[in-house]
Amino acid sequence: xxxxxxRPTAVHEIVLDHEGVxxxxxxxxxxxxxxxxxxLVELARRAGRLAGQHELSFYWRDERRHLVxxxxxxxxxxxxxxxxxxxxxxxxxxxxxxxxxxxxxxxxGLSNADIAKRLWTSPRTxxxxxxxxxxxxxxRSRAAAASVAIEESLLVLPVPGGPxxxxxxxxxxxxxxxxxxxxxxxxxxxxxxxxxSRVPGVPGTGRRSVRRPILLGSAxxxxxxxxxxxxxxxxxxxxxxxxxxxRGGVNGRPVELVNVDLNIKDGTSISRAFEDLAGHDxxxxxxxYLGDQEVAHEIAAEHRAPYLHAATLDxxxxxxxxxxxxxxNIFQICPSDTNYGPGFVQAMTFLRDSRQLPRRxxxxxxxxxxxxxxxxxxxxxxxxAERSGWRLDYVADDVAGTEAWREQGSRVAELAPxxxxxxxxxxxxxxxxxxxxxxxxxxxxxxxxxxPSIPRFRVEMGPEAEGLLWATTTGTYSxxxxxxxxxxxxxxxxxxxGRSHAGIAYDRxxxxxxxxxxxxxxxxxxxxxxxxxxxxxxxxxxAYSFAGAGQSALAYPLSTPDPSISMAHLVFxxxxxRQRIVHPAPYTEATFRRPPWWPA
Length: 600
Prior knowledge:
Layout: E1 12-16, E2 22-26, H1 30-33, H2 38-48, E3 54-61, E4 67-74, E5 81-87, H3 97-107, H4 112-119, H5 123-137, H6 142-151, E6 156-157, H7 170-174, E7 214-219, H8 227-246, E8 255-259, H9 267-279, E9 284-287, H10 293-303, E10 307-309, H11 314-322, H12 324-327, E11 330-332, H13 340-353, E12 363-369, H14 378-387, E13 391-399, H15 402-415, E14 419-423, H16 427-439, E15 445-449, H17 455-461, E16 469-472, H18 480-493, H19 501-518, H20 525-533, E17 537-539, E18 542-544, E19 555-556, E20 567-568, E21 570-575, E22 578-583
Parallel strand pairs: 3-6, 7-8, 7-9, 9-10, 10-11, 12-13, 12-14, 14-15, 15-16, 19-20
Antiparallel strand pairs: 1-2, 1-5, 3-4, 4-5, 16-21, 17-18, 21-22
Helix pairs in contact: 3-5, 3-6, 4-5, 5-6, 8-19, 9-10, 13-14, 15-16, 19-20
């Protein structure tokens, strides 16, 4: 019978702020950091007070004389410092704790006689240790052993016997208490024990380091009514993570996805999911659209890690704008829902003025479903319609339930407006309306929101979807960048992605990875948020800019005429079972076709 699988090594991490004060803790209770770990934490504080970037992995003995393998990282004075460690670790190559001490001093250039004095033993004993070390490491010389020690972090701190003679090396500096420093307050950075430097001319074996994965926490539904949508978000996120990790991760650290299933229409389920993510102490949170979005906002605000959501809610943008002190870590990665109504009017105006849409009627209609905190910009739509020569004279609001959607489909067919916006994000509601309308259709443009982006919509509707228009505040473009993403997604998952949330989930991971790389540390949440606010991020769903007070992506052409800093409010038409962009320029790839339910 085979033995039990080895228990995974637990990685602990703390982050100290620029003043050396404990900022965050992972994998260990805050109370446990004090006491037996005081000296290790103080060592990290000393690293944080040095000039320049430093990273060092080493072994350290706790008060029980057990070996701890630790990594300290700092970007320099006035930056945060992270300390990661694993306990009760096994030294590679079967190197013993005593041999580890000898190897540390050997790597510092000491002779056997000098090492013997440091360790209060005889030169003959040290010679025996050195011979065994060479054999275990598979090298022939002391220089080669020193190189392996540096490359694989086979070093023990504090320096055995004291830091004397090591004052200009990082291992000596970190082994010296503040009161013992006799040199300059900003020691020089030297290559021998700096940020992973190698001895020239000696091949390396792969430097060891405590590399806790960067945890991306997602709240995507993988069961229930919109499971297919949620699974797309998971797949696209994982695709981006796999690509980031294949390139070496974020500054050498892998990214790992932690997804929690939830019911997006149930506040208790949303609360439970986000509390779960906070309990995992994730480095960032992401989600699609949620019914009780404010519940997620409050938990994310308390957790403080960056939270990138796609709720498409102007009310949430205003929340961030009005209280940046509390909600400054929250970013809406798509333009707001208030663009939907005006976008509908603008698209119909373009089709009419370009003579793609016959001038049969001046009437427009909107049927809006029930969605908490939602606002489709209807008031602005009425004003825009009047200025553009339309009458928005039928608005049905807060439509809920299958029968109500069926009645609205029949009602709109009777009224026969030039176009109707079907204001629901859900497949079942949109399908019910369309089928009811198509029972006795009028020559009306059917213009849906978002739902047709989900592959299940076209599977369920089949040929009935032909000729339908639909819009999204965040859609995947048809350029080469997007096509390459589509090909990679299809290769990875054997299915094609939809034209909205798959792309945004993929872009979101890449945006976060760039921000983590640019920040002082992924655990320095304020620094990551600052990085997110900087510049423009180009993805498969357009350009993302979070420079505004509400930290939300911009809509083109509705909120800015500049497509290089915004996301196009895309209008698709299903033509020959394909999604073709018909508005706005310069993203159009097809002209509007007469829907099959119109009379000849």
